[in-house]
Amino acid sequence: MRLADYTTIGLGGPAREFVSAATEAELVAAVAAADASGEPVLILGGGSNLVVADAGFDGTVIQVRTRGCGRGGEAGLVTVAAGEDWDAIVAWTIAEGLAGLECLSGIPGLAGATPIQNVGAYGQEVSQAITQLRAYDRTAGTIVAIPNAPCGFGYRTSRFRRSPGRFVVLSVTFRLAEQPLSGPVRYAELAAALGVAIGDRVPGAEARSAVLELRRRKAMVIDPADPDTRSVGSFFVNPVLDRAALAAVEAAVRARWGEGIAVPRFDAGDGRVKVPAAWLIERAGFGRGYSPGDGARISAKHTLALVNCGSATTAALMALAREIRDGVRDAFGVSLAPEPDLVGVAL
Ligand SMILES: Cc1cc2nc3c(=O)[nH]c(=O)nc-3n(C[C@H](O)[C@H](O)[C@H](O)COP(=O)(O)OP(=O)(O)OC[C@H]3O[C@@H](n4cnc5c(N)ncnc54)[C@H](O)[C@@H]3O)c2cc1C
Predict the structure, then answer these.
(1) Which helix (H) or strand (E) holds 20?
(2) Mean pLDDT of the chain
(3) How many angstroms separate the alpha carbon of residue 255 from the centre of ligand 1?
(4) CA-CA-CA-CA torsion sign (344, 53, 67, 17)
């Protein structure tokens, strides 16, 4: 069982054991059995945020295949099994006349993985809609309900973002607005594509189409016909810099290119700013399509995505990631952190 066949980037060696869990009871039993025998566990969703070593995983990979979704309880509440395809759930909520997830259209993977790194795109994050999730607590051996606040959501992170994690997400409950119009459009690129102003609302289906179109142009929707989609999405998270780190970047930019080049930034609260990693990578000399020639390259459509051309190994991918990380650090003093879960490899 090669894990390359279960990851969107098509990389990863064999799993020693592989269990596919189609029901919640099977999922909990598989995890509990592996834990009882001291066996390392890797929970596998859609494999769209995983980089697995060429040597594979020396333990049990447990694939989540649980299904089910429904509305219930209060108005606007939907509960989704961990194994449901995320994009199908987004489409379903829009068809139900519910708003709050439309900007998260086209993100690959399964619903149960969305809280792990608090998936986000085009001004929405799942943490804005999650009311609670149910999870198997591997330490206590019980099923627990965890409300939003203790999930510790942040930018591309949560308390669950540690592998191997203590909690296996079983289902997620979202509170959505019962309205045919989208939430307020918060992202300038999306507003421009829709021809509306920031803060306007559009029919949910229109927001979804616009997001999918923008994503396809960046190879951010999985498409077997588009080799640039053989990735894990963004490989690096956008660094959040304090004043001193931003000043150092600005000084490095001035020293290299003189006055007149503004470092792009977004407010990240507490006097800190988020600087686009793609901008730093390009300015450090790594353009789209850049490849050291061993099967791994930067996407031709999106500077933040690293792509397996088909012949890459995980070692080659990680070497490219290190080259980029080091180049950005040398140029600007900023250490880029990886977004995907690295299994058996390190940056
Ligand atoms: C083309 C492309 C575009 C992308 N665009 C975006 C984007 O716009 N925004 C964004 O935030 N992300 C994006 N991603 C990253 C990825 O799609 C998300 O992180 C997604 O939520 C991962 O889901 P998955 O089911 O594939 O998880 P996997 O890759 O299978 O797993 C990821 C991590 O979550 C853990 N995990 C999975 N399921 C569970 C569970 N039920 N309980 C506990 N742990 C679990 C795994 O053990 C692993 O550590 C993109 C990826 C690709 C390939």
Answers:
(1) strand 15-21
(2) 96
(3) 39
(4) negative
- Residues 160, 164, 170, CA angle at the centre, nearest 5°? 55
Residue range 298-322, pLDDT digits in tens: 999 999 999 999 999 999 999 999 9
Q: Is 234 a residue of the active site? A: yes
CB 14 within 8 A of CB 2: yes
Contact yes or no for 7/63 (Cβ under 8 A): no
**CA–CA gap between residue 330 and residue 334 (Å, rounded):** 8
pLDDT at 29 over 80: yes
Residue position matching structure tokens 């040398």? 330
Helix (H) or strand (E) holding 288: none
Please state, in angstroms and as integers, the Cα–Cα distance from residue 326 to each residue in 56, 233, 335, following that order.
Answer: 26, 20, 8
Cα–ligand 1 centroid distance for 119 (angstroms): 8
> Considering only CA atoms, which residue is closest to atom 36 of ligand 1?
113
203: preceding bond cis by omega (within 30 degrees): no
Is residue 156 flagged as an active site residue? yes
Mention every residue, 6+ apart, whose C-beta is less than 8 A from residue 296. 306, 307, 308, 309, 312, 316, 317, 319, 320
Best residue among 44, 107, 214, 218 to mutate for probing ligand 1's pocket (most ligand atoms within 8 Å of CB) is: 107
**How far apart (Å, rounded) are the C-alpha atoms in residues 298 and 304?**
7
Q: Does residue 162 have a pLDDT over 90?
A: no
- Of 119, 106, 75, 100, which Cα lies nearest the Cα of 183? 100
Ligand 1 nearest atom to the CA of residue 83, by list position: 41
Structural tokens at position 85: 């395809």
Distance of CA 48 from the midpoint of ligand 1 (Å): 5
Residue entry with tokens 């996407």? 299
Report whether residue 116 contacts ligand 1, using a CB cutoff of 6 Å.
yes
**Dihedral angle computed from the Cα positions of residues 291, 296, 300 and 301, in that order, rounded to the nearest 10 degrees:** -140
Tell me whether residue 319 is exposed, middle or buried, using C-beta atoms within 10 angstroms of its C-beta: 0 to 12, 13 to 18, 19 or more.
middle
